[in-house]
Amino acid sequence: MVKGVPAIETFSLSKNYGFVKAVKELTVSIPQGGTIGLLGPNGAGKSTTIRLLLGLVIPSFGEGKVLGMDIRTEGLKIRDRVGYMPEHDCFVPDIDAVKYVMHLGRITGMLKADALRRAHEVLYYVGLGESRYRKIETFSLGMKQRVKLAQALIHDPELLILDEPTTGMDPDGRIDMLELIKDIAKHESKTLIMCSHILADVERVCDTVVIMNRGKLITMGSLKELVESKKDAIILRVKGDSNLLIDKFEREGISAELRDDAIVVFGSNDPSTKSKIMKIMAEEKIQLRYFGKPTASLEDLFLSTISYEEEAERRKTSA
Amino acid sequence: MVHMSIESLGYKEWEGEKQGRMYKILSLIEYEVKHAWSSTWIKILIIIAWLPVLIVFFIPPTEINEEGVDRIYYDLISFTTNLTIWLPLMAGLIGGGLIANDKNNKMFSMYFSRPLKREDYIAGKVGSFTALMSIPTIIPALIIYIVIIGKSELSLEVFIKKSWLLGATWLYFFILIVLFGSLVLFLSSVVKDSKYAVVGLFVIVILSDLIANILWVASDNEIYRLGSMTFNLQNIQIEFLGLEQSTIFNARLDELVSPWKSFAVIIGITSAMAVLTLLRLLSLEEE
Prior knowledge:
The complex is a heterodimer of chains A (319) and B (287). With 319 residues, chain A is an alpha/beta fold. Chain A is built from eleven helices and 14 strands.
């Protein structure tokens, strides 16, 4: 681990497949250490971003570095220091877990004896010590996920990329897997990137999140700070015309939107906002039913950022 | 028994030296050879291919004279190297799954997320195909030659004089392995199921023979014979390597097409297949 070098650094990183822009001008800098959640709906560009970072596809434009190495020219060196756990099953039939993990260790360049010893170690670590000589096709979905984690760990990588690590796991297995991820992340020299659509999992293990949509970076930062920023809102439930009230708010420079049956007013940290809201409601003779702070979670953050982005995109297109 | 939780074992770091490209290629070869060996069909074919090695022990030493040694050797070798049936079947069974199985099992994401070049992956597959194909071809050829020497009452000088036979056989097998290897690996990269690669190889061999022969007969132009895979291999075998034609399976060829032309056709096919396989691998990775 080279201190001071970001784990991932990209500048205007873009990838086009024909006319499809899979990743659009992605600029991020992720320091080494910690667990980063990579979020986004299907087609957000997460997988392409991973492939770009692994040096498996050449960027159309822009630059990128992983652990200080150029993704255009140093793909092999990057992959030497990165462990990747894919989302889908990728197993060879008729092979036991030890042989499978050892084989992948040898392909990474580990000597046979080292790979064998290490395969036993990582399989024990992921909780498959007792089942390591069983054929992988007889494993449950959760056990297969553990084998995939073991193969990603065999060469002790500095950067670990986990694509949907808890998919298909039962609640107990999910918690075990997340505990393992947290345990790995305790090591200072390790940086983990976790792609997941299970936001509760991301919330449980990640300290930083990167949210992507339609190939673009929507937001990035400390999970705690981003969630807190969403608390800068007020939820109103009123008896009367909510749309009329939102129009009035916007005329007064207050940002608001209708979500389900409630009005969400942003910028509540400004002391004048609350008095302005009350004044407008009194003028319009609208009865207030509920006034309170939202309970912000990663899910709220994710949904609001994605829907805000899509709305902005729609407005831009219609304009 | 004391039960230890996962966490209590803890994550251990690993410090060791990683090996270079050649080691990774050899690891891939070792793995594929061991994996192929678990197939019953491949075991059966290899056992059949080794039958001539048994037969050679039953040939009376008096029959192995200076005039007949070439014929005995060649007949034994060609028993398992018949071009139309035996070799495509072996090549298909051995090589058909080498890439197709990785594709079906989605192993590309495992291999290529590691420090393994695509060229090294192909080298590993070609290496494993060559190693496996050597078992029914190159190794029996050597053993048969040694047994014939051991059994005969001929002088060592005769065998030193005849050693070109072994060298030429090996060279011929090598050409066969490279040609069928390039074809079957390309087929393996395009089909979903390995058995289609076996069928595809048969279709290529038989169709190329059929079309080339029809065109040759219809036009009376020898050049069309170069379209036949079997013709080119036989042409090299007889004219270029000086190996005699087997009387068991094949008819004598006309000596009108230069073996160099056949050689050029085979090099052309092999190179084209290698490039197409590499391109196919690149496109599979993009998918």
